[in-house]
Amino acid sequence: GAMGYKAGWTNATTTQSVLEWHGEENGTLFHSHNCFGNSYENLAFYGLPGKAGILFLTTTSKGGGNMVHRFSNMSFSNAKVGMQMGSSETQKTNDSDLHLESIFFGSLETGFYATHEQAVDYTFTFVFGLNVKTVFNFQRGGNLLVNTAQLTNCNVLHVGHTGFNNGLFLLNNVRLESSAKHLREPHRWQLITSGDNVGFAIVRFNNFC
Hints:
The structure is a single chain. This protein is an all-beta fold. It contains no helices and twelve strands. Strands 1, 2, 3, 4, 5, 6, 7, 8, 9, 10, 11 and 12 form a twelve-stranded mixed beta sheet that branches. The relative contact order is 0.12. The model has no long low-confidence stretch (mean pLDDT 87).
């Protein structure tokens, strides 16, 4: 399924190496399992339109963890999900504690997807989003800090279920835009949406424009 090369095209900068999905529809491009303290830099994860399901997936085994990773100058584009924490087939523990800086999400249904109660503690410094249905999708889990985001044709945050691990959703300096080609369509760009099981969540936007 995957092919890698150095290029400066299709949402990848000239400083990024490209990993591209060429496998079956809805496949996973990169799967990290039970890893600790990794650093990912200057990579573009690219799924051919209509092909890739998840570009970057983290999972754990019982008693394990997948956490304390750093991501810098990364692109995730043309798939259903850019980054996903946990899956229905694996143990739902400790897909957590990530620091991400200079992140691009483009042409995705979901940019960052947290699936379980221990998908927690994520810090983003500068996110650029383009044509993403939901940039941050927390079906469960939480404790999200975003410092500066430029988002065009994107819904920002979805909170699907609240619980004791939600913590705080704090987003600073978020700018929302719509491109000209979308002006005739229903205006769907929203700061926050929620699921049916939301009780109480602490969400704060500072310096939104």
